[in-house]
Each structure stands twice: as structure tokens, then as C-alpha cells.
Amino acid sequence: MSDRADRHLDAVALGLGKFLRGFDNPSVHTGSPEHFTREARKLMTIAALQVPGQSRAITYAEAAATGYGPPAPAPARAPDSPLALLLLGLTVTGPRAHGARFELPLEPLRKEVAALLRVPVLLFYLQVSDRELFFRELEAIARRDAFPLWPVTAEDGGTPLPCPACGAPMPPDRAGISVRCPACRAGIERVRSLPMVPGAAATVSYEFLRRMVALPLVTQYQEEGTIQPLQTGGPKP
User: Fold this and answer.
1) Within the chain, where are the H helices?
2) What is the dihedral angle through the alpha carbons of 91, 80, 208, 21, rounded to the nearest 10 degrees?
3) What domains can you pick out in the chain, each with its CATH number?
4) pTM for the complete prediction?
5) How do residues 79-99 score in pLDDT, each as one tens digit?
6) Which residues contact 61 (CB under 8 A, 6 or more apart)?
């Protein structure tokens, strides 16, 4: 991948942070832009975009670097959603910028990119003001927006629940590891309460993260790679 394409992908990944509550407020998002970019770039390494006439899928990074993208021209206005940002990101980098054009049909591409935003591979830690209410709110989000959520609270002793998508038995919980159901292959949103502080460790998708940090109950959040001691009674957003 060229340096130009790599820098562009970093900019797209960082742009996803702008849709998170408090991302530019260091008292709320206590991580760093660089570590957030690292986490968001994980989504760009997943082979999720289907090329017409080929049996293989390509990654978002490969599509951006080689000029694959939607047939519609880039919109003049700034993207107003994470999905619009990622679609725009496929139109302004790589060989496409020099005249090459390999079109991916817009509607399948839109669905594939939207699905990419729901792949639970991002690692975050959160401080919350009310742990019990926080987990109830997460379960409400999961029911409303059809996220397969696997909450692990101190109260349940860490006993894993059945797959929230199909009910099959799940493997033992392992902190920091993405979880996929062995039966239905659904990626599981997992949020584990921390025993000594009012917080949680999350292995989640971007879209679940976006909904999660939008809760006023989340007083601070940070990427797994920039963990610092969570401050009890930390600043309110």
C-alpha cells in the first residue's frame, strides 16, 4: 500500500471518532487519536466487500488502495454518518484518484460497509456512573437495534450466557478476545464489568460503541492500548 493510501485510511479511521460523543473532549475520551485510529483500522482489514464476478471478498483497505468504490461521484457536502464517511473514503484515494475506476455496485456495497461497522473487534474501557443502570441500558440498546450482546457482570460470577443470536452454548469468556458463536457464526458484542472500579471492558463493534458512549452514564472511555487507571468519581461529560 502506498504512503498516500495509508495516510488516507488513517484519516478515514480518525473521522469515525468524530461521530462518538466527547471524542474531542479529553475529559470524556481519555485515549488518543493515534490509538483510536489503530482500533478503527482493524475494520479495514476484514475481507467483507464482494467484487462482482469474483468469488473472493476484499478488505476496505484493499478497495481504497486499488481504486474500487461506488459508481456515484463523491458528494460535495461532508458525510453526515459513519456509513457515508466510509463510502466517501472509497472515492478519493488510490488509482481511482488518477483515473482508474473499478465499480462496486452501490446498494450491495452500502450493506457490506454497514455490516462492517457491526463487526465486534474494537477494544475499549469505560468508566460509568451507575454500573447496574449501565448494563440495563446496554440490554435495551441490544433489543432495540438487534445487537447480539453478551454482558458479563460481577453479579453473575462471569458465567457465560448462551449465544444471544441463536441460543447455542458459548465458549468460555476470555478478556480482550473477539467472540464469535461456534454455531451461527454471529459476532458477539461483549461487555464485561470490572470488579474493582465502576467501569467495563468492551469488545464491541463500532456501531455498538457509538451507542454505548452516547449514554450519559459513560463518564470516560479510552482505547484498550491507552489504559490508565480509571478515576472513581471522574468528571462528568
Assistant:
1) 3-17, 33-41, 60-66, 82-89, 106-116, 131-145, 206-213
2) 130
3) 3-116 (no CATH), 122-226 (3.30.70)
4) 0.86
5) 889 999 999 888 755 444 444
6) 1, 5, 9, 41, 44, 45
Give the three-class secondary structure for 80. Answer: coil
Q: What SS3 state is found at 27?
A: coil
User: What phi, psi does 182 have (nearest 5°)?
Assistant: -70, -15
Average pLDDT over all residues of the chain: 83
Q: Quick one: cell of 14?
A: 480518525
Is residue 120 a contact partner of residue 205, using CB atoms and an 8 Å limit? yes
Beta bridge partners of 59: 47
Residue 229 · residue 42 · CB < 8 Å = no
Q: Which residues of 59-75 are buried (b: 16+ CB within 10 A; e: fewer)?
A: bbbbbbbbbbbbeeeee
